[in-house]
Each structure stands twice: as structure tokens, then as C-alpha cells.
Amino acid sequence: MRSVGGRLFLSYLGVVAVGLFAASITISGLLVQYENDVLRLRLQELSAPLLTAMASALRGNQQPKDIVDALSEQARSAEARLLVITSNRRILVDSDDRLTGQTLGRPIQGSFGTFTDRGESWLFVQQVFRQNATGLAPSTIVVARPRAAFADAIRTLIPSLVVAGLVSAGFALVVAGLLSRTITRPLRELVSGARRFARGDYRARVPVAGPTEVAELGGAFNDMAGEIERARGSEQAFLADISHELRTPLTSIQGFAQAISEGEATGAAIAPAANIIQRESRRLMRMVEGLLQVARLQSGTQELASERVEPAALLATARGALEPLAQDAGVSFAFTESPDVPTVRGDPDRLAQLFLNLLDNAVKHSPRGGTVAVEAARDDGYALVRVRDEGSGLPQGAEKRLFRRFYRGENAQRDGAGLGLAIAQAIAEAHGGSIAARNLEGGRGAEFTVRLPAER
């Protein structure tokens, strides 16, 4: 069978069959042992008076044949057989006259044993008689009985054993069926849930039940389904966001290009229209490049250099690049550098972009006359960089959302693509680090914290 349930069913039956077979072998051995013990006792009890009578008659100088003839009726009533055997294994007398005068092929050893006559097995008890006053050589007197005569108990037990075996087999069939269904039911539910999920029902879940391994499998499926559902929701949200973000520059480009081509923008109006087309095209290009960069960093396909990098040097470079923008916005920088800031290993260009995006974001959200505080330090095997602004702070619950692609707060500039912080997070995580944001106490602005593993 190919199904798990069928194989489990057959496995249970196999185990039960092997168990019954082993039990039957054991019981048979015990019964044989029991039968031999019972036969020995019964034969000894049966033969005791006959052996005593024969021994007494021999001591009374009677002839063996006369003794056997006198006891033959008593022996037949007990289904027994009397024999007198000489020391050289010659049978003097046989109450059945079948072996009289013959010689046994091998000596009879012990007081209890068996011999075969014409295919029939006989059990016997023997006693050695050494009285020879009548000239009779030392002899052995034997009382034997057919083995079949003692088999009544076994024959009585066999039907009961067969019935018990059939009942056990039937009970095993029922138990095997129930156990296989109990184990395979969660698997069938898992298959059903997987098929519903494959047909597009991303909310499909399966019960976490059954044996431990099956329950763990169901739990793993539910976890996977939940992650896929969340990923699909994120994908749909991303498609909606990118559609919205791309529509604005494309609408401007299309509108002004159409105005120029149809002659609606003529003379001095052509230059402003062309400038708008160029500006929106650059914005669109930045957006596409930013999306590609985030996608490559998150997927691990972006090739990153592995060089020794001084975070303080990158921060100084970013400050120099943004100084003109800060002066125009009336914002100043305040840098604090700990003397033990560790170096990190990574791509200097990408890390420079990370710090440039953070400082640029802080400048844009700081009021005129405000200060952007930048601090670099060591923190338990990490290089720690904090960037604080004095703006209005983060919107309620935006600590996680602001790192999403295209997310912009209420005070964000409308010409931005909303990808700066998403790129910064992707760069930090690609270097094994992290970035987090929080509001400062008292509503005095926001703080962004970057943690990068220190170079070993």
C-alpha cells in the first residue's frame, strides 16, 4: 500500500501477527512441557500397581509369561501394555504379542521414556528386577501406554486456543484500524488545508492535533501559512504603494510631454515644461534605483565590499556633504565621538550612504535653529551611532512603519521618494547590524540608533 494509513494498518497487523506467533510458540512449548510432566505423573500412578504386582510375582518364582497373562486383563482395562525385557535387550514377554522374542534396537535409558512400535508412539515406565532365584537373568519390567491416550487435554485446549487467537486477531484488526485513522486524520486534514491554501485560500489553517510529530508538522504548516499570508499582504501593499508613487511623476511627465507635442506649450512655456519633465524623470529614476537597491540588499544579491571602515570618518564625510543643506535650513551639527569607537568591516560606500540618509533625514525634520546631535561609541562588541533631531518627533506607532518603502510622515517633504530609511535599514541588516527609532522624552525630537558589529 502507498498510503500512510494502509502502511500503519499493515504494520500493526504485522506486529500483532508476530506477537501471536511468538505467543503460540511459547504456549505450545509450555503445553508440551506441562503435558510431559502430567504424563509422567499419570503413567507413574497407573503403572505403580502393575509394576508392584509383576515384581511380587517374579519374587514368587512365577514365570514372566504367566505373570503377564494374569495381569493382561487389568492392563487392557487401563489401555496399558506389559513387557519383560532381559539385560541383553531381548523381549521375553509382550502382552500384545507383537514384540515377543524380538530384540530392541537400542537400550531403554532412564525410568521414563518413549519407544515406537509400528509407527505408534508409546510412553513407558520401567523398573529393573534383579531377583534370579528362578534362574531368570536380571530383567526389566515395563508398563507402556500409547501417547495418544494422554493427548485428550491438549485436544481439549486446541479449540479454545484457536477461538482465543481469532478473537485476538479480530480485536487487533479493530485496534489497528482505529490507531491508523487516529494518526492519519491530522495528516488528511493537513493535506486538505494545503490544497485549500494552494487554491488561494491564504487563511486556511489546520488543527494542531495527533501525535507529537504530526502536531509539530501541523504547527509548522500554520506558521508557514501565516508568514506567506503576511508576505502576500506586504506584497499587495507594496504594489499599491508603488503604483501610487509611480503614478504622480508619470502623470506629470505624460501631461507636459503631451502639451509640448500638441502645441499647447509654446514659446516661453516649453522650457518650464521640459524642466518639470526632467525633474520628474530624475525623481522616477531615483525611485527605481532605490527600489532595486533595497531589493538586492534584502535578497542578498547585492555585492558588498569587505573593508575595514572607521564609522567616525564616514560620519565626518556625510557631515561635509550635508553642511550646505544644513546651512540653508538653519540647522547645525553637534558631533560627539567616544575615543574607543570600534572599526567595522563592510562596504564603505554603502555604509556612507546609510549615515548620509540618516543625517539628511534629521536635517529635513529639524526646525530652523535646531541642532542635529550625532554620537559614536562602543557598545558591547558593536559600533553604536545615534542621530537625534529636534523636530516634532515620530507619529504615534510609526517606529516600525517608517522603515517601510514609500512611507512618509505628515511632515515629510513631498518630493521625496520615501525610500531613504528603507535603504538605510537594508544596508544595516546586510552588514549584520540593525537600526531602530524612538521619540525622545518630552517630545524634543526623534532618535535613530544604528548598531554595527565591531571588527574582530
Give me a quick take on this structure.
54% of the residues lie in helices and 16% in strands.
General description of the model:
There is one protein chain. With 456 residues, the chain is α+β, with helices and mostly antiparallel strands. It has three domains: 4-154, Beta-Lactamase; 212-299, Helix Hairpins; 307-453, Heat Shock Protein 90, CATH 3.30.565.10. Helices cover 54% and strands 16% of the residues. The protein contains eight helices and twelve strands. The strands form three sheets. A five-stranded antiparallel β-sheet has the order 2-1-5-4-3. A hairpin with a 2-residue loop joins strand 3 and strand 4 (120-129). Helix 3 runs parallel beside helix 4, helix 5 packs parallel to helix 8 (420-430) and helix 7 packs antiparallel against helix 8. The longest helix is centred in the first third of the chain and has 56 residues, at 4-59. The protein is rod-shaped.
How is the secondary structure organized here?
Elements: H1 4-59, H2 64-77, E1 81-86, E2 91-94, E3 112-117, E4 120-129, E5 139-146, H3 152-198, H4 212-261, H5 270-299, E6 307-309, H6 311-329, E7 332-337, E8 344-346, H7 348-364, E9 371-378, E10 382-388, H8 420-430, E11 434-439, E12 446-453
Parallel strand pairs: 7-9
Antiparallel strand pairs: 1-2, 1-5, 3-4, 4-5, 6-8, 9-10, 10-12, 11-12
Helix pairs in contact: 1-2, 1-3, 3-4, 4-5, 5-8, 6-7, 7-8
Given helix and strand content, the structural type is alpha+beta
Tally of alpha and pi helices: 8
CATH superfamily heading of the largest domain: PAS domain
Characterize the largest beta sheet: strand count, sense, and whether it forms a barrel. Answer: 5 strands, antiparallel
- How would you spell out the order of helices and strands? HHEEEEEHHHEHEEHEEHEE
Number of domains: 3
Hey, roughly how much beta strand do the residues contain? 15-25%
Which blocks of ≥5 consecutive residues have pLDDT under 50? Answer: none
In CATH terms, what is the fold-level topology of the largest domain? Beta-Lactamase
Overall mean pLDDT? 77
What is the helix fraction of residues, given as a range? 40-55%
The outline comes out as rod-shaped
Supply Rg.
52 Å
The CATH top-level class label of the largest domain: Alpha Beta
